[in-house]
Amino acid sequence: MGTDSWRDLEPIPWYFSNEIPWETRANGTLYWIASREPERHDLIVSFAVEDEEFREIPMPNTSSEEEFPIAFKDVGIVRGRLSYIERLPDNFIEVWVMEDCGIKDSWVKLFRTKFDVDLRYSTPFLFSKDGGIVLMEEYSKKFIFYDPKRNVVRELRAFLEAEDGISGLQYDREVTKNGSGR
């Protein structure tokens, strides 16, 4: 990368998920959901910009592998660490964090919970410092905040500006896990 000329890298042996057409970035590294076989999506691939190296990162052994063979998978960053998110049928979501990047046994499950709203088509948007997660619902473009400590779901209103992206998220409604509003 440190040169002002283009060059070819080695061909890459992975198939990348078209469910998530963008990468997650942290500390000079890009991450994608990928596989060595089409449609499997069973590993994470990273590209370190500094040394221009691709690496495979194993996914955690989730409890959902047998329970829900079909899951929507995504990667993100939580507190500066690589995270793995599974959105499962029946409105379950699991979030894992890798404590030591590249070491499979260092995955730690942050939470698994069931929502009263369908999150299969939601994308993790950001994580709060206290562990909350903001998801964007793909079709309605609604923002949802989940506080795992209190088991509370909030619908958020977003104010969008074309030039600046999102300029703010505002609390709109709080819903407990059983769906009653507060």
From TrEMBL:
InterPro entries in UniProt: F-box-assoc_dom_typ3, F-box-assoc_interact_dom, SCF_F-box_component
Domain F-box associated beta-propeller type stretches: 4-157
Domain of life: Eukaryota
Name under which the protein is recorded: F-box protein CPR30-like
Organism (species): Nelumbo nucifera
Gene: LOC104612226
